[in-house]
C-alpha cells in the first residue's frame, strides 16, 4: 500500500514526489521550521524527493500547540508519516531534529515497521549523551536568546525587535524540552547505517559526542566534518549538500528492516 492524497498530514507542508525512487525526510532544529530546507531539492536533484517535516507551532502551524514531550511527538510522527514511509527513504535531522529522527526510527524498528535506508544526523551528540543546550531552562530569556543568536539559531536582526526575539526564543525553548529526560540510555543498535555530520567549529559538540553514535548501529557508520559552526549546512551549503548527496547515492535500493 502506498500513500495517496487522502493521507495528507500537517507534518508535511509538501507531498513527496511519487515518481522519485527515494525520499529524504528532513527534521529541523529547535526553533526552526521546514522552510530551512528550501533549496535542497534543487541541489540534490531528481533522484531523491526532499520532504521537510514541519512540527506544530510554527509557520502555517503557528496556532497549533507545541509538543514538549518526545514520546508524544514520536507517536504523532509515527502515525502521521507512516503512509509515506512505505517506500524507500532516508532521513536527515539537524541538531534536535537528529534526536527526533533517531527516536522515530528506534520506535519503528522496535515495532517491526519500515525504517530509513540510512539515518543521517547533524550537530547532535549520540542520544545516550547529554546535549549542552538541554540546560537552557536554567537561563533567563535574555541569556537564552543571546546564546541562540551567538550559535546562529536566531538572526541577529531580531535583537532590534524584542517581541519577535522573545517569540523565537520561546519556540526554541519549547522544542529543546523534547531533549530533556528523553530516557534514551538503554538501547538496541539500529539495523540501518548511521552517518553523522558535524561542524568543525561547533561549540556544542565534543569528540565523544560524535564517535559514540557508532554504538547505535550494527550496520555501517561514518563521520563527516564540515567547515562551520553548529549550523554548518548553512555555513558551507555547497560542500555539505555534496557530502549529503554522496551518502544518499550510496544508499542503493535496499530496504532497511529489523531482521
UniProtKB/TrEMBL annotation:
Keywords: Hydrolase
Annotated ranges, domain Thioesterase: 23-234
Protein name from the UniProt record: Alpha/beta fold hydrolase
Family indicated by similarity: Belongs to the thioesterase family.
The keyword NAD is assigned to this record: no
One Pfam assignment: Thioesterase
InterPro entries, per the entry: AB_hydrolase_fold (IPR029058), TEII (IPR012223), Thioesterase (IPR001031)
UniProt organism field: Streptomyces litchfieldiae
Gene Ontology molecular function: hydrolase activity
